[in-house]
Amino acid sequence: MTVPSTNRRVTQQDIARMTGVSQTTVSFVLNERDDTDIRIAPETRERVLAAIRRTGYVADPIARRLAARRNRFLGVFTYEPVFPAGLGDFYHPFLVGIEECAESIGCDLLLFTSAPVVDGRRRIFHQDNRLRLADGCVLLGRWLDPAELARLLAEGQPFVSVGRRDDAGGPVPYVGADYPAATAAQVRRAAGLGHRRIAYVGEGAGAESHADRLRGFTAAVEEAGITGTHVRFTDAATVLDQLLEQGVTAIFVEEFADGAVLAGEAGSRALNVPEDLSFVALGDPTRPASTDLEFSGFRIPRREMGWQAVEVLSALLDGTGGETQRLLPCEPVTGATLAVARA
Amino acid sequence: MTVPSTNRRVTQQDIARMTGVSQTTVSFVLNERDDTDIRIAPETRERVLAAIRRTGYVADPIARRLAARRNRFLGVFTYEPVFPAGLGDFYHPFLVGIEECAESIGCDLLLFTSAPVVDGRRRIFHQDNRLRLADGCVLLGRWLDPAELARLLAEGQPFVSVGRRDDAGGPVPYVGADYPAATAAQVRRAAGLGHRRIAYVGEGAGAESHADRLRGFTAAVEEAGITGTHVRFTDAATVLDQLLEQGVTAIFVEEFADGAVLAGEAGSRALNVPEDLSFVALGDPTRPASTDLEFSGFRIPRREMGWQAVEVLSALLDGTGGETQRLLPCEPVTGATLAVARA
DNA sequence: TCAAGATGCTAATACCTATTACCGCTGGAG
DNA sequence: CTCCAGCGGTAATAGGTATTAGCATCTTGA
What we know:
The structure is a homodimer.
Chain A: H1 12-19, H2 23-31, H3 42-55, H4 61-68, E1 73-78, H5 92-104, E2 108-111, E3 117-118, E4 121-122, E5 136-140, H6 146-154, E6 159-162, E7 174-177, H7 179-192, E8 197-201, H8 208-224, E9 227-231, H9 236-245, E10 250-253, H10 256-268, E11 278-282, E12 296-299, H11 302-318, E13 325-328, E14 331-333
Parallel strand pairs in A: 1-2, 1-5, 5-6, 6-7, 7-13, 8-9, 8-10, 10-11, 11-12
Antiparallel strand pairs in A: 3-4, 12-14
Helix pairs in contact in A: 1-2, 1-3, 5-11, 7-8, 9-10
The structure holds a DNA duplex.
């Protein structure tokens, strides 16, 4: 187990010298190239492999990428810290899925520590843009700058977004959740329980995930022949005042946390949830929210989305075609906050 | 912002040809090296900069890192999954600190997620060891094989351990928590509250972090002139029997979870915590533990440890000296489980 | 007038791997 | 004896940037 004490990185050249072969031979042994007309005698191969084992040599991923344009790294780019400070973080399940799939296809994960803030906004492209260090990239975040997506597309940089994205000068590869369908299903469920006047609380615009929810809401409301209103969340008291005045009996919240606060406010007004007022949470909490209620609504298949994003990316890299835009169904949650509408 | 229609990347060579200078000159203009004796005429510099702006040229980060002999990847080796499944996972705060510091020094993180288990134990060194993919490594885990640490040292592989480690054929760079001091402080506090007979429950050996706690405990007990016993945790009933029989009034638990179980057992015997029996938790929970008690004891500066580990690693890589072994103080927690000893 | 510096740049090379083109040797067929 | 095929490799080079050593040309001073 003797190892050279030099501090220098071990290179193929070193291995070559140790075994009395050329660097080329080492490279071929490493890559087990059987398809070419290069032949290496079994005993030579063994000698080289032995030296590699002895030294713990690993090909420099950077040189590898420069020469071969591949290094089996998948980049993970997020607009938030990758290891989030908040407990039970929203992004965590995505990352689990990404890690699992990356491992299954034999790729390492390169976590880009968060992008620098330029002009008050995080940016992918900046002075020392690191995206190209990996073979391809998974992009994570509620909102991605269309201009940056467009540039990625234009440059032919292989990437996949977790979450549906609008076209940005071309179709953006993504694995998203089918928010319109999931939201519509909840609206139908509410309508079936007799709710005639329901509300959507949230942005409903900006990020695609928000717009998609509102779109599904609006379409389903129309189809069910009931009345739906849309309000932005400001503070619980104000919003609740407004909605109760309108005779709303079920509140659909874009943000779980807003729902928790609203339900709390309702409780402090002696309104029972769901007997007096129903709530539907359109997805998992993205912020910590404290509530004892088990919200009705749906769950985002986050882990699966992460997994499939890597799958799509892998296909993109291999040039094997296949659908590059996938929408996954959300899992409905019966919960305990949606009941028959009060008469 | 006219971009050449070719699919090839713009290189410094291209810029050089466009402006009638050499690639070297382009490189110098780009890097604004004023410290060298290289001089570029202002008008030449302007011409080059104009071409750069026109083409939108950005230096290829891969080539850049190849030339720099640094890839600015920091490896993270852990004995657990990197994206922990459990909520509030013990290792999480370390990772947060690691990421934050990596970002501040402009490094990305490379995850070594899948160290194979050999002979019933995870190993750093194995067949397809990827350690050298990064410039340096952060090692995370309660226990690290001294033989592997020795090999890392011998090979001159830059690394830093999170958590103090005994010498392994040489001093191991680490950023640890000062468990002896933190534990001793708690012992003194208990002694000050009149406890004359206290116990340490846990391994007290094996991992350095355990041995350090017991060492601090033993030294402080002696200094305070009180009596301390050490028992391993088997099951709550047995241990509690034993300690109560000995007249112990304060129990110091190495593992938070063991403390929770012991306190629960005490409660089921109609003993009040802390009036009848005091508890001190020597650190944060490493396993999920359910308890309503707010334990007295101390907190491990996990985030700070992660941060400083990267700091030390960075210094190691830069060859700038500095202390490579750091012990950080733990934060005492007053809590509600340590009170005046029963008369 | 000529050496000594200052000025403004370039050639060459290192970084490390992957790949292409080729080379020398041996044994068997013709 | 020659030619060729098969074997087992090697030399050279690409890939793009950073850096070191050095080369012309011009200015200055004595």
